[in-house]
């Protein structure tokens, strides 16, 4: 359980922060950038939810919770020592990836195939979901880069990869099941 009685601690004033295992690292360390970008994605998703309702809002709420799981996963290096931790480490599970895949397939089933790239926009929700998609791609790039230097849970990387696809398809759903998608017209302004 998390208890936050005091919000500022002054322990980061010298440019360092603590990882989930207590290790102190620079605030610009690749691991901090990776989980910080996942946090940024979560905040962006909070904005999108202001325009969502019903099942879409419920799905977005689940993803927000998953993103905290992802941040907890990324902030704890050295998975090989998870069994030594005082409390079980929270790791993204393959079931979370599978849920995204099932939802993508279900949403995509309601859509006509694309015959053009689409421009980010349309409804307010779709525009926000496209922003979420691009931040998810950036978070994925940082996690993949981190994985070239340190161990990263492969399910966490797969989750981010599927999540950006999920946001793309959900953006189309938010645009009247794709009927209000804004299509790219190559060379239209030459």
Describe this structure in words.
This is Corrinoid adenosyltransferase. One of its GO terms (cellular component) is cytoplasm. Keywords: ATP-binding, Cobalamin biosynthesis, Cytoplasm, Nucleotide-binding, Transferase. This protein is mainly alpha-helical. The protein has a single domain (about 25-180), classed as Hypothetical Protein Ta1238, Chain: A (Up-down Bundle), CATH 1.20.1200.10. It has helices spanning about 30-50, 55-75, 95-110, 125-145, 155-175, and strands at about 15-20, 25, 120, 180-185. The protein has a two-stranded antiparallel ribbon. It is elongated, with a radius of gyration of 18 Å.
Quick rundown:
Belongs to the Cob(I)alamin adenosyltransferase family. The protein has helices at residues 30-49, 54-74, 94-108, 124-147, 154-174; strands spanning 16-18, 24-26, 118-119, 182-183. The chain has 5 helices and 4 strands.
CATH class: Mainly Alpha
Tell me the CATH topology: Hypothetical Protein Ta1238, Chain: A
What is the percent of helical residues?
40-55%
- Number of distinct helices: 5
**Broad structural category:** mainly alpha
Q: Please tell me the CATH architecture by its name.
A: Up-down Bundle
**What strand order characterises the main sheet?**
1-2
Task: List the SSEs and their pairings.
Blueprint: E1 16-18, E2 24-26, H1 30-49, H2 54-74, H3 94-108, E3 118-119, H4 124-147, H5 154-174, E4 182-183
Antiparallel strand pairs: 1-2, 3-4
């Amino acid at each position: 359980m998390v208890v936050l009685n005091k919000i500022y601690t002054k322990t980061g004033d010298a440019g360092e922060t603590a990882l989930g295992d207590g290790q102190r690292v620079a605030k610009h360390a690749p691991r901090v950038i990776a989980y910080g970008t996942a946090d940024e994605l979560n905040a962006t998703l909070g904005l999108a939810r202001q325009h969502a309702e019903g099942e879409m809002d419920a799905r977005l709420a689940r993803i927000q919770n998953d993103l905290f799981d992802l941040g907890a996963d990324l902030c704890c290096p050295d998975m090989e020592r998870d069994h030594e931790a005082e409390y079980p480490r929270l790791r993204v599970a393959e079931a979370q990836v599978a849920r995204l895949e099932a939802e993508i397939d279900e949403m995509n089933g309601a859509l006509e195939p694309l015959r053009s790239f689409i421009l980010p926009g349309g409804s307010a929700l779709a525009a926000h979901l496209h922003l979420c998609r691009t931040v998810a791609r950036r978070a994925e790039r940082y996690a993949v880069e981190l994985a070239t230097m340190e161990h990263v849970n492969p399910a966490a990387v797969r989750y981010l990869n599927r999540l950006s696809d999920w946001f793309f398809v959900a953006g189309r759903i938010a645009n009247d099941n794709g009927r209000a998608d804004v299509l790219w017209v190559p060379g239209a302004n030459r």
